[in-house]
Amino acid sequence: MNMVAQFTGDIAPADGLQWCAVLMKQTANPNRRTVVVDQDPEQYRNRKGAICVRGRQGTGRRVFVHERILSRAGFAVVMPLRWEFRQKSRYSKDKKSVAYPLLGSWLFVGWPVGQSRWSDLMATNIVAGVAGTGGKPLLLTGHNRERFEEAFKNCNYQAPDRHKYMRSGREFVIGDRVTVEGGPFVGFPAQVVDIEDEISTVLVDIFGRAIPVEVPSYDLALGE
To answer: Is the pTM here over 0.85, yes or no?
Structure first.
């Protein structure tokens, strides 16, 4: 398993920030977790013929909604991520790497030591709670980007490349019991003994004997 630290936010390099772990509220539209920002502008005519401006397709960068709101409010933000392969659309087997928050609805928010920005934080109206002890928020000081990377380097997850050839949410590893869901052995239970890019070798029980068979990884699925 390849562990890679991935972070969002513009983190100051100096140890001049204090941090707290913040629990985010669910967005009004739970299906809209991210937004594209910093797109190049382009002009177009709407249906009434008026000239309008929009972001050019394929430009800009995608950030999480909560990160965007906090960053615009002047906070530093650290959101550990995990990367997994997901289908580009329901009509295609092709996959792309998609980022998800590693800690669910939790992220780290920072501001300069000596400042009290709790009212500003709550004014964003996206905070559900703050990690603490004894009824007081737990503050971390002296943690810059490098120290957070060190703290999370063994937690962040980068899905292996072979997952791009498997069904989303049904990925498997060598030794797993799977079900064949395509080809001449459809419906057969099997055990994975080797994985080579888009082809997996499995043992299928045929007439009382375990026979090795090569099957496209997409035609196998780990049992739910």
So the answer is: no
